[in-house]
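Note to self: the last two entries modelled the partners one at a time, which told us nothing about the interface. This time every component goes in together.
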Amino acid sequence: MGISIKTKKEIDTLREGGKHLASVLRALADAVHPGVTTHELNTLAEKLIKDGGDTPSFLGYAPSGAKRAFPASICVSINEEVVHGIPNEEEKILKEGDIVALDGGLIHKGLFTDSAITVGVGKIDTNAKKLLETTKKALMIGIKAVRAGATTGDVGFAIEQFVKPFGYGIVRDLAGHGVGYAVHEEPFVPNFGKKGEGVVLKAGMVIAIEPMLNEGDAGVKLASDGYTYVTKDGSRSAHFEHTLVVTENGSDILTI
Ligand code: MG
Ligand code: MG
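The predicted structure of the combined assembly is written out below.
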């Protein structure tokens, strides 16, 4: 399948859905407190998505190679968990000082958006704050590199150059992606790269950019649940993501 160009009407619909998703993530961020379980966050997300007339896109999604479908409506990844954490019933309770990545996706009138934020639970330490701020900035730096004619390599290059002086590990095994008609589409949008390499972006392409930064080394591994990626060295990780549409002179963020 080639890389799809969305119509103006589809982009308007994606923007509507993206607004819904942004408000769901804001409500989830407000609900993050010590003692709250990841399961409670998932239940809230599912309710809010459905109340908005939409469908959670992660629930029942089976990526290629997965042994089972994803069993929840959002991914909740705590501390050394990088992405794709499964919210569950009892084991996972948020505690003061944790950092928690909330990744959501929804289908609005048939079209898919994807966005993630990482927030602190209660008071977090200075290093955690810096990790969160830098990851969020890295996302915005990546978005700034987007315009028709730029490449996915330009985006990755911008993120990598920005992050380098901080010494954080940029996760290389996972990346941003095209989105809109499905949870994941082409192209692959890595958070590292060389200027001018990769896929040339065109106006109307819809992509998700999603840097994942580790306090330590960049290495990640898949946990035994088959979904959760964790840092190899146990260091903490943060994740921010927006869905955006490429325009002639830049991009429009759809998930705000
Ligand atoms: Mg996501
Ligand atoms: Mg994504």
